[in-house]
Design a protein that fits this description.
Blueprint (H helix, E strand, L loop, with lengths): L9 H14 L4 E3 L2 E3 L5 E11 L2 E10 L3 E4 L8 E7 L5 E5 L2 E5 L7 E5 L4 E5 L4 E10 H9 L14 H10 L8 E3 L5 H15 L7 H27 L12 H15 L9 H8 L3 H12 L3 H19 L4 H7 L5 H12 L3 H6 L3
Antiparallel strand pairs: 1-2, 2-3, 3-4, 4-11, 5-10, 6-9, 6-11, 7-8, 7-10, 9-12
Helix pairs in contact: 2-3, 3-5, 4-5, 6-7, 9-11
């Protein structure tokens, strides 16, 4: 059994009470799903409890009525919430009476707050609401921050399990206050968190053990990325800032573009016209958005992918340099060799000469 039916946290019961009171309708919880009257609200709200002290609430609804939902703050800081708003349109949130627009643009879609904060959500009729709320108890967060000691810290761009724990330990972020990820924070951080939240939203069965594993892993990654990102932003004066607010659909298009490049099989057919058509953008806009979002051009990214693939093939000694160069779309081996050395600092031939 994944979760006892009577083990629903108090904050969830208070949410159900608030929904009943606001919508003036019968709202219940069945098998981890908040059951709403279909004539009032279409869609689903799901509750996952992948670990004691760690809960995830996914919201994918469209209301037939406009309403404001107030959450009841606690007296003590019993838990913290990170809310990732993936809605295609901006939604109005108030935290301690201060108004924020969340969603629509990746740079304003993430909110962190303690359970003592007074938070309200304004939902307009006919507007789609897509969000992921990760609720972590103070005890669980403290245990996560203190139990595991890891000496090495990877680079900021890397993502692995060790660093998810290390980032909590080294963070100088004041978790006792609320934080909003806005235009002053790094775009890349919000892009990564948005991708993880979308994976959680794709889970629909909270009684499935594999979906619970996905939800738990992604929830921990989101928590760590957020704390690490804010810590990095506050302590690195040279951190890159992006002022442009990208639409969520543009983020998805750029991610799809990267996937196409990373999984290409016929290099000769991988043209800008082909990529633009595949992701549904004009060639000019695609080039501009990619450069602003990733910091390098599409061509530079393509070269990086090719060189990383080539090194992997050479490390595994799966083929000759000549065959690898031609399979990567290079016209001459000399061109391939020069580019390989520029990217990896060693001659391609030296990797093949190393004995197994």
């Amino acid at each position: 059994m994944l979760r006892k039916q009577n083990a629903n946290p108090k904050w969830l019961l208070m949410l159900l009470w608030s929904l009943r009171k606001t919508l003036k309708a019968d709202v219940s919880l069945q098998d981890g799903k908040v059951v709403l009257p279909p004539e009032v609200v279409a869609g689903s709200i799901c509750h996952y409890s992948p670990a004691s002290g760690l809960d995830v609430l996914t919201c994918n609804i469209e209301s037939n009525h406009s309403f404001k939902l107030d959450r009841v703050p606690t007296v003590n800081k019993d838990f913290f919430v990170i809310l990732v708003c993936c809605s295609p349109s901006s939604l109005e949130y108030k935290v301690n009476l201060k108004r924020y627009l969340m969603g629509g643009a990746s740079s304003s879609g993430i909110l962190w707050y303690p359970s003592t904060a007074k938070v309200s959500y304004k939902i307009q009729a006919g507007v789609k609401v897509k969000s992921v709320a990760i609720v972590v108890s103070k005890i669980y967060l403290s245990r996560l921050m203190s139990n595991i000691k890891i000496p090495a810290i990877p680079k900021y761009t890397e993502c692995n399990a060790n660093y998810y724990v290390q980032s909590f330990q080294n963070s100088s972020v004041n978790l006792e206050q609320y934080l909003v990820l806005n235009d002053d924070m790094q775009l890349k951080l919000s892009v990564e968190i948005y991708k993880l939240a979308k994976e959680i939203l794709n889970c629909v069965n909270n009684l499935d053990i594999f979906e619970n594993l996905i939800v738990k892993a992604n929830a921990l990654k989101v928590l760590s990325l957020f704390i690490r990102g804010v810590h990095h932003e506050k302590n690195n004066v040279e951190a890159a800032h992006t002022k442009a607010g990208f639409q969520l659909i543009e983020i998805e298009q750029v991610q799809r573009l990267k996937t196409l490049i990373e999984h290409y099989e016929e290099p000769d057919h991988l043209t800008l016209d082909y990529l633009a058509k595949k992701v549904g953008m004009s060639k000019t806009i695609m080039k501009v958005k990619f450069k602003k979002m990733e910091g390098i051009s599409i061509y530079e990214y393509y070269q990086q992918v090719r060189m990383n693939k080539a090194k992997d093939m050479l490390d595994k000694k799966v083929d000759s340099i000549t065959n690898i160069a031609y399979s990567m779309g290079f016209k001459t081996v000399s061109h391939f060799s020069r580019l390989f050395k520029r990217y990896h600092g060693v001659n391609a031939s030296s990797l093949l000469n190393v004995s197994k």
